[in-house]
Specification:
By secondary structure, the chain is mainly alpha-helical. It has a single domain, classed as Muramoyl-pentapeptide Carboxypeptidase, domain 2. The protein has a three-stranded antiparallel β-sheet with strand order 1-3-2, with helices on one face. A hairpin with an 8-residue loop joins strand 2 and strand 3.
Length: about 180
């Protein structure tokens, strides 16, 4: 399932610029909005918009084939998408027997690489909620409804950063018949 991509130095520069710019964006949103919940919603909404557009680029670059299970989808997100766009590969445990809940566990989160701690008085800020929106938006574009949330965050003292993905319904298999 793992694939190697040699995209040269430009993507690394783009990733670094995005990470630095992201910190400035979150800082500005904290100035613009009093409540952490409003900042979190804004970042999630922004991420959703990015995800709906990014999925096309991802499918063109990765040449992944159709997935046949939620497990396969989640491993593609971790092993291909995170590798391409953020240069990391999260681990992917399944969280239930129904095989529709998974976690993406990041030992190192590039988005919070230059952040020592959350701003004072911002304990409920979900600094990287943009990622949840991106994943949710991209999944919806391939007709997979999912609830995507942060379960653990190193910036809040947890040992890892963990994103939970719960697929909400089985995709319907459409069978096409030839007209005779």
């Amino acid at each position: 399932m793992s694939q190697e991509f040699n995209r040269g130095p430009a993507p690394q520069q783009n990733k670094d610029l995005f990470i630095l710019t992201y910190g400035a964006l979150v800082a500005q949103l904290c100035k613009d909005y009093e409540k952490d919940e409003d900042v979190n919603k804004y970042l999630d909404k922004m991420g959703y918009g990015i995800g709906t557009r990014l999925v096309e680029d991802f499918l063109a670059q990765s040449s992944v084939r159709r997935c046949h299970s939620y497990s396969e989808v989640t491993h593609i997100i971790a092993e291909v998408a995170f590798k391409i766009y953020l240069g990391v590969t999260p681990s992917v445990p399944c969280n239930n027997s129904s095989r529709n809940e998974f976690s993406l566990i990041l030992d190192k989160n590039p988005l919070s690489e230059f952040v020592g701690e959350l701003p004072a008085g911002r304990s409920s800020l979900c600094y990287c909620s943009l990622l949840c929106g991106i994943i949710r938006g991209a999944l919806e574009m391939v007709h997979l409804a999912a609830d995507v949330t942060f379960l653990q965050d190193k910036l809040k003292g947890d040992s890892v950063t963990e994103i939970g993905i719960t697929f909400l319904k089985q995709p319907e298999e459409k069978k096409y018949r030839r007209k005779k």
